[in-house]
Amino acid sequence: MPATAPLARARVYSVDVLRGLIMIIMALDHVRDFFHQPAMTEDPLNPATTTPALYFTRWITHFCAPLFVLLSGLSVRLMHQRKSTAEISRFLFTRGLWLIVMEVTIVSFGLTFNPHLNLMILQVIWAIGVSFLFLALLVFLPWQAVLAIGILITCGHNLLDYTQAQPDFKPGVLWEFAHQTRYTYYPLFGGHGVIVFYPFLPWVGIMLMGYGLGRLLQADVAPAQRRKVLVGTGLGMLVLFGVLRGWNIYGDPQPWAGSFYSFMDVEKYPPSLLYSCATIGPGLLMLAALEHVRNRVTEIAKVYGSVPFFYYILHFYLIHLLCVAAFFISGRGTHEIVDPNVPFLFRPQDFGYPLWAAYLIWIAVVAVLYRPCKWYSQYKQTHKHWWLSYL
């Protein structure tokens, strides 16, 4: 066996472990949406109404989307070692379209349980899909150029905030889809419509950065050099966050004032530069630390991280099915299935439980999904069907 094989496994292992950890944490936020009573009426990051436990519960899940997207780009770079550029481009184009279709059908139905699919919600899977379409074109460039474009978008897109802050500014559809969502409902056809939660441009930047950073995980990069760059970049992003946020210089549309809550409340929709620094920075430190760690916790996390899309789909359906069960167990009637103020069926605005109950349900959800994810992970390792790369 080549001497580089164990190192290669360690690199991929650390990526799967980190991805698994963020997938586990992600489920907490979605369980909170469905089961925590004030989730549909209050902002958990609002300093005036939140509690330390609620603030932490919401903020810790900020790591999920940017690292999910970053690691998706990084994984494409690793795949590029085994496939030609033309093959990678073709795969990215078809998978990008596939993910967008899945977002507006399977994922949206899992969220809403509306059989008519009247509402299609564009979230992280849509953002990854669109990012793949951009990367399908840019993958023909040198990786350094792709990385530079990603950094430029991530660092520069907040300059657009000054444009939209003008009193006479009138955003159009493209603006809302690309940069700044106002959660507008856009009717399409036959009673169907769409709402954008994840404007794609900033996420494209993060995807491209992930692709460029993937160069560090290639076999010809020494582990010590990889660790040095990951740690240095991670710490640099945290320092940049502290300086820019501390003096309210640039990088987030909302200046902070007066409290730690306000200081850490950075914009996710779309991900501001400061949001990206505060989440990706620690993520890179974790990626560096995990390369040589292997224990029971990392083995469990790797199971989820090796089948992220499979887990993502299943966890929404399981959470919503549990919500339906809780809805009827709590004595709710069929007339309450649809709440005009909430896009999710079986989740009235006044429905829910204390935060501690949401934590218990979260643990149960993650535990139940372990066996299916482990089975599918093993299936992918022992079968080479072309369609497995799309799931």
TrEMBL record:
Annotated transmembrane regions: 12-31, 59-80, 92-113, 119-141, 146-165, 185-208, 229-249, 269-288, 309-331, 351-370
Keywords of this entry: Membrane, Transmembrane, Transmembrane helix
Pfam families: HGSNAT_cat (PF07786)
Residue intervals of the Heparan-alpha-glucosaminide N-acetyltransferase catalytic domain: 11-220
InterPro entries: HGSNAT_cat (IPR012429)
Protein name (record): DUF1624 domain-containing protein
Organism: Chitinophaga lutea
